[in-house]
Specification:
By secondary structure, the chain is mainly α. It has a domain of about 70 residues. Helices cover about 55% and strands about 10% of the residues. The protein is built from 6 helices and 3 strands. Strands 2-1-3 form a 3-stranded parallel beta sheet, with no helix packed on it. Strand 1, helix 4 and strand 2 form a beta-alpha-beta unit. It is elongated and about 75 Å long.
Length: about 120
Amino acid sequence: MDTFKRLLVCLAAMALTLGWLWLAHRPPPPVQDATLAQVQDEAARGGYRLLNTAELARLYQHPPAKLLLVDTRQDWEYRSGHIKGAVSFPLEPTWWSRWRAQRPLAALLGPDKNRLVVFY
């Protein structure tokens, strides 16, 4: 009977592990196309400012001393072409990936809270 209990514990541990792996790596739910108003509302709630391409071009041509451009696309996309001077920091759309990226992102941004950071 002791062997049977061990087998049950092993099977339960495997089921929990597989369930957690599936939960952590499942694809995000399909996102409906966001309207400009929804994006603007989300930016306002998060304390972010949206830039259009003309504003970004102006900042890029006459950058402030503390401008940081962050390319959030995948590595292969960054390697295929990016804005000169931008750093690569791929962000996955899953909550697990974003949670794991918090510390590396904080290290990239540094302690300066007055720095202008542009994510694209």
